[in-house]
Structure formats: structure tokens, C-alpha cells
């Protein structure tokens, strides 16, 4: 059985779910947050050490201002209400992406990271204002400046995922089969599962089914 150390998730389908059931995309984001909570609990139950969630891409700035503000308010309230609980559960929160939000949100994100820095049970990486191509260009620039040898090990030191092992498993919900500029380097050998359900409909049972399938895959990493 394959060890499972790191799960990455593209949480897609909030908008469609919201429009279908509540006539509002934002209602879908709110419902999506409940799924986030369920999946965090189930990740702990499965003793998985890293969970990376794609919450906001560099491309998501093209959405209407109203939706962007709603998403960041949702995140702000979530952190204000839940960070103590996450900390008590020994969960570490790390933001991957450029923190150039409002001064208030930046401060809250920094405080949340600092508070949970030493926690060991599970590390949640929240990809916020994240784009893989930007990350790679930046990493190559910094590696070049450092004059170190250009190789995989040295490059990974300049990625936003420094010190985080690569994901073993990527799940994308929402019946869409693409990577959307997410962890393009880090996913080189991940097993990829595309799930038809929209993110707010995705549940513990669906997650465990994928984990079980993942554990039974023969992973070759190029060997036979
Ligand atoms: C993609 O669905 C989802 C997002 C861009 C936002 C993800 C946010 C959440 C799951 C809730 C908030 C999370 C935190 C941690 C506060 P989409 O809107 O692109 O869906 P669509 O393809 O149906 O339009």
C-alpha cells in the first residue's frame, strides 16, 4: 500500500453549485467552506501530514469585485473564528502565494501562521493569490542570483513550497480536467483524481474512496 503524506486539492465547482441551488455563486463559496472543514477532519483521521488547498489563484482577480470581496471576507471570518481551534488541534497553517491583500487580512494571515508555526499534527497549506508559473519564474531568478548550481534540489529551495514534500495525490472536483496553474513543478509524479461532484457536494465518503484507490495504485516513478 502506498504511503500518503500529502494531498493537494483544487476545490472547483462552488460557483456552479451556488447558482444551481441558491441562485448565487457566493452561496456556493459559503457551502464550500463547510466541505473544507469536513475534509480537514478526515485528513487528520487518515493521519495525512500535509493538505494543500487551492483557495484563490492569481487568475481569480479577474472575477467580479463583489465575489472577490466575499471570498476574502469568508476567509477572514473563518480565521477569526477557527484559528484557536486549529491551533488546539495542533494544526499548522501556511500560506503559499503572494500576501498582498488588505493590511487587515495580511496581518491576520501573518498572525495565524505565526501562532501555529510549531504545530505538528497536520500542515495546511492555503494557496492564496498563488500561480505556479509566477512561482517558478521567481524561483529561477532567485536561484540564478544565488549562483548555486541549477538542479532540482536547489530550485526547490526557492519555491513557495520550500520544505514541503511534493503532493502524492491531487484531487480536482467540479468535473473539469485541468491543472489551472497549480503546483506544476510539485505535481510531477502525483496521482491525479478528477471528481465529477462539485466541491460543496464532495464529502468524507468520496474522499476516503479516492484515498483507498490511491493506496492501491502501483506507483512506479518511471521504473517498471
Ligand atoms: C472554485 O470554484 C473555488 C474558489 C475559487 C474558491 C475556493 C473557496 C472555498 C472552497 C471557500 C473558502 C475557503 C476558505 C479556506 C476560506 P469556482 O467558483 O471556480 O466554481 P465554478 O467553476 O463552478 O465557477
Tell me the layout of helices and strands:
Layout: E1 6-10, H1 14-22, H2 25-45, E2 50-57, H3 65-88, E3 91-96, H4 103-115, E4 122-130, H5 132-146, H6 152-156, E5 169-172, E6 191-194, H7 204-215
Helix pairs in contact: 1-2, 2-3, 3-4
Bound molecules: farnesyl diphosphate.
Farnesyl diphosphate binds at residues 11-16, 29, 32-33, 36, 55-56, 60, 71, 74-75, 78, 126, 174, 199.
Structure description:
The chain has 224 residues and is α/β, with parallel strands linked by helices. It has one domain (6-215): 3-Layer(aba) Sandwich (Undecaprenyl pyrophosphate synthetase), CATH 3.40.1180. Helix content is 44%, strand content 16%. A 6-stranded parallel sheet has the order 3-4-2-1-5-6, with helices on both faces. Strand 3 (91-96), helix 4 (103-115) and strand 4 (122-130) form a beta-alpha-beta unit. Helix 1 (14-22) crosses helix 2. The chain starts with 5 loop residues before the first strand and ends in a 9-residue tail after the last helix. The mean pLDDT is 97. Farnesyl diphosphate is lined by residues 11-16, 29, 32-33, 36, 55-56, 60, 71, 74-75, 78, 126, 174, 199.
Amino acid at each position: 500500500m502506498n504511503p500518503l503524506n500529502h494531498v493537494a486539492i483544487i476545490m472547483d465547482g462552488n460557483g456552479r453549485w451556488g447558482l444551481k441551488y441558491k441562485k448565487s455563486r457566493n452561496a456556493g463559496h459559503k457551502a464550500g467552506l463547510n466541505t473544507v472543514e469536513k475534509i480537514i477532519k478526515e485528513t487528520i483521521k487518515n493521519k495525512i501530514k500535509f493538505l494543500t488547498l487551492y483557495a484563490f489563484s492569481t487568475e481569480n482577480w479577474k472575477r467580479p469585485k463583489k465575489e472577490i470581496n466575499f471570498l476574502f471576507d469568508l476567509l477572514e471570518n473563518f480565521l477569526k473564528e477557527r484559528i484557536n481551534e486549529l491551533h488546539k488541534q495542533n494544526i499548522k497553517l501556511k500560506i503559499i502565494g503572494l500576501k498582498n491583500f488588505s493590511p487587515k487580512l495580511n496581518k491576520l494571515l501573518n498572525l495565524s501562521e505565526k501562532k501555529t508555526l510549531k504545530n505538528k499534527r497536520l500542515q495546511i497549506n492555503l494557496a492564496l493569490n498563488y500561480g505556479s508559473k509566477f512561482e517558478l519564474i521567481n524561483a529561477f531568478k532567485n536561484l540564478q542570483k544565488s549562483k548555486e548550481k541549477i538542479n532540482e534540489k536547489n530550485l526547490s529551495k526557492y519555491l513557495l513550497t520550500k520544505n514541503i514534500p511534493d503532493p502524492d495525490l491531487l484531487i480536482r472536483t467540479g468535473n473539469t480536467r485541468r491543472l489551472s496553474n497549480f503546483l506544476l513543478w510539485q505535481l510531477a509524479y502525483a496521482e491525479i483524481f478528477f471528481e465529477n461532484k462539485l466541491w460543496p457536494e464532495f464529502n468524507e465518503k468520496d474522499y476516503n474512496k479516492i484515498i483507498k484507490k490511491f493506496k492501491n495504485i502501483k506507483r512506479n516513478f518511471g521504473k517498471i
